[in-house]
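Milestone M4 deliverable, item 7.
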Amino acid sequence: MKEFLKKILEFITGKRGPSLKSLEKELSKRKVEIRRAEAKEKRLLAQKKRLIRKGKRLQKDVSPEINMLQKEINMQRQLIRNLERAKQTIDIAIETKTLENFGKDLKKIGKDLKKVSNQYEKRTQKQQKLTKDFIEKSGSFKKSKRNTKNTGKRPSSVNRSKRLGIG
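Output delivered:
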């Protein structure tokens, strides 16, 4: 029965349909990613609160990073919902084995799986864009302008010690 289901899934989606195991793996992976992102968000919020309580300002604004994490968490949650729906329909189709509803179920599974794969692609593109934007905004990878005057010379401390006759 499962093999038959796989064949039909392949036919509907136009590529090798995911098995139940791969769906479950994907689900657990997403859940772990959500937990990680939530933990990071919690840490950042706690850090922000601590600094505010002490009356200090943050060196850089953490809110865009927090917003990015929240978006990531929401996207992951949506992906999980779709994966669970796809898994559920596969389970039902396997349990019922009735051919009347079988075609409808499989079409639904095909649609769900296409939706999931499209969303995953969109999510990765969106994530890449978000990280790129975040890096550009925060400027964390900008070249430092330190020591541009002194290029090609020895550090000033060495020159000073030479002048003073030390060392």
